[in-house]
Amino acid sequence: MVRDHTEKMGDLEYTVLSPDEFPPQLSQAIEEKKAEMFRMTYTDEGYLYICVGYGEQETGGYSITVKELYETANGIYIDTTLIGPKEGEQISEAVSYPFLVIKLADIGKSVIFN
């Protein structure tokens, strides 16, 4: 049986970080990119950081969920979704820049964003 390179080998363990846990260089890169949608990776001291930003939103109240994060023979696949404020939810009227930073062990594979 030939294995498809995109076939899921297993889910990966990860941690969602708060901004005070980012390496300084990563914080600076996010600050420069946050106004636009972005997808980037950063490696540091044996860890891989996967960053997904959804650009400027008119209000607060947004969150991001990780739908999938798994390893295949040729890479790491990630799929995220931006979730808007709920109907009737108290939200900040200020502009927001929703983004997510995930930290996991660096296994030396490329990240494929879905």
| SS-derived structural category | mainly beta
* Strand order in the largest sheet: 1-5-6-8
- The total count of helices amounts to 1
Strand content: 35-45%
**What distance lies between the first and last C-alpha atoms, to the nearest angstrom?**
26 Å
H/E order of the elements? EEHEEEEEE
Shape: globular
Radius of gyration (CA) equals 16 Å
Task: Describe the structure in your own words.
By secondary structure, the chain is mostly beta strands. Helices cover 9% and strands 41% of the residues. The strands form 2 sheets. A 4-stranded mixed β-sheet has the order 1-5-6-8, with no helix packed on it. A 4-stranded antiparallel β-sheet has the order 2-7-4-3, with helices on one face. Strand 3 (37-44) and strand 4 form a beta hairpin. The model has no long low-confidence stretch (mean pLDDT 93).
